[in-house]
């Protein structure tokens, strides 16, 4: 009996179109089954005149196994790390199909590895090191406890929900982005703590990498004064491509440093300010599964799955953007290559069942069909009690004409 459904959604690059095009029921989904279904859907889309440029998914084990079943066509980068980020489109041999891991999901896995890097034996699954210096969550806790009582503070984004995340907070991308932000990096550097420089560098590089892959709309870069969020065009893409390359180089250097048997840390962190009420609850520490290669080398850096997702997404993003711009797309907002619309679709299915947030197969299919019909027949509601006025209002500085006073006839009393 089927216990899961697999949903394929197509999303436009240069327009706002998004639509669920296929749904499959499965009990235990395998990579081989996913391979057959995916290319069946891509073939149907290509025959309908819809060119498929990229395949976006999260970093689950089935998705990673599905991607590895493809023959890579990595022309510009050597496949020395075994990362498959593109393959020939079987339904359109003149084009490539690029694989991208959901960037918000990657940010959460990066935060989880960072959260697990503690120098307390009871709470640590990782002890991340680079250049002999620690990359640890202890500095985040120390910074929060030091500044939480102050009215004005640089790291204003830190709060109890993102410093001591519970199972609900760990699912929120917002809380991960608040910790791995530029403001926290600057405040951490301003403290002058020994051994904290590498942690600040790690936060800064992750923040820049995420910003380059998270531009939402064409004006957000100017509105928040962050050029990394601006749309990609033919004239402004090279500088941010260099930021992405720098992050890959940082990960490569980190791997080499972690493999060095002499890579140790002699510095000691002052944990006097890290003992808080939340610190004693081990259940609040991230319950991430152990990495596949649970070795001392693996525990000194990010997890293997996280690094593969970062490399695959970053290596695929650059040629994908270049291809789309050369095909005539005027600009590319990086956030179009994520799973947010699909997750919103799933939330609508769960919300449509009232108090039951675990619908069965029949309920899910009926709700998907209803959303498809209502999406085409429904009309956007006009909000508020005002509308557009097509009249042109002319503004001038000339004085207003004086209005002539007209008086009526005086009342005369007759005798």
Description:
The protein has 14 helices and seven strands. The strands form three sheets. The chain has a three-stranded mixed sheet with strand order 3-5-4. Helices cover 40% and strands 8% of the residues. Mean pLDDT is 82; it is low at 266-292. The chain has 415 residues and is mainly alpha-helical. The chain has helices at residues 31-47, 61-68, 103-116, 138-147, 160-163, 173-179, 182-190, 197-212, 220-223, 238-258, 296-299, 304-326, 340-351, 361-377; strands spanning 4-11, 18-26, 54-57, 86-88, 96-101, 129-130, 133-134. Helix 7 (182-190) packs antiparallel against helix 8. Residues 2-69 form the Transposable element P transposase-like RNase H domain.
What characteristics describe this protein?
two-stranded antiparallel sheet, 415 residues, 3-stranded mixed sheet, TNP-like_GBD
Write a short abstract of this structure.
By secondary structure, the chain is mainly α.
């Amino acid at each position: 009996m089927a216990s899961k459904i697999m949903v394929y959604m197509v999303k436009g690059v240069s327009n706002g179109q998004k639509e669920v095009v296929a749904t499959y029921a499965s009990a235990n989904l395998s990579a081989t089954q996913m391979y057959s279904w995916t290319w069946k859907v891509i073939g149907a889309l290509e025959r309908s005149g819809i060119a498929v440029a990229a395949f976006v998914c999260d970093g689950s084990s089935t998705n990673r196994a599905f991607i590895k079943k493809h023959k890579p066509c990595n022309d510009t980068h050597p496949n020395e790390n075994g990362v498959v980020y593109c393959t020939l489109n079987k339904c359109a041999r003149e084009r490539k199909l690029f694989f991208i891991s959901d960037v918000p999901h990657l940010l959460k896995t990066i935060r989880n590895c960072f959260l697990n890097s503690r120098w307390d034996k009871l709470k640590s699954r990782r002890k991340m090191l680079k250049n002999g210096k620690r990359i640890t969550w202890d500095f985040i806790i120390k910074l929060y406890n030091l500044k939480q009582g102050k009215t004005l503070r640089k790291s204003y984004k830190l709060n109890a929900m993102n410093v001591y995340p519970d199972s609900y907070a760990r699912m929120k991308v917002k809380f991960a982005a608040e910790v791995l932000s530029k403001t926290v990096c600057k405040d951490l550097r301003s403290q002058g703590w020994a051994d904290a420089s590498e942690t600040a560098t790690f936060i800064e590089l992750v923040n820049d990498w995420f910003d380059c892959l998270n531009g939402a709309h064409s004006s957000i870069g100017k509105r928040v004064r962050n050029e990394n969020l601006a749309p990609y065009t033919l004239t402004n893409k090279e500088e941010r491509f260099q930021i992405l390359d720098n992050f890959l180089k940082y990960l490569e250097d980190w791997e080499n440093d972690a493999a060095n048997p002499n890579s140790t840390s002699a510095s000691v962190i002052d944990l006097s300010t890290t003992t808080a009420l939340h610190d004693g609850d081990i259940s609040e520490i991230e319950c991430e599964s152990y990495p596949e290669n649970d070795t001392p080398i693996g525990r000194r850096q990010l997890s293997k799955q996280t690094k593969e997702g970062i490399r695959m997404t970053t290596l695929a993003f650059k040629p994908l953007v270049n291809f789309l711009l050369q095909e005539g797309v005027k600009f590319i907002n990086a956030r179009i290559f994520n799973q947010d619309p699909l997750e919103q679709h799933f939330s609508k299915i769960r919300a449509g069942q009232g108090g039951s947030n675990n619908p069965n197969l029949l309920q899910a299919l009926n709700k998907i069909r209803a959303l498809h019909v209502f999406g085409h027949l429904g009309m956007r509601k006009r909000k508020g009690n005002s509308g557009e006025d097509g009249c042109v209002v002319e503004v001038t500085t000339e004085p207003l004409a004086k209005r002539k006073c007209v008086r009526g006839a005086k009342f005369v009393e007759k005798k």
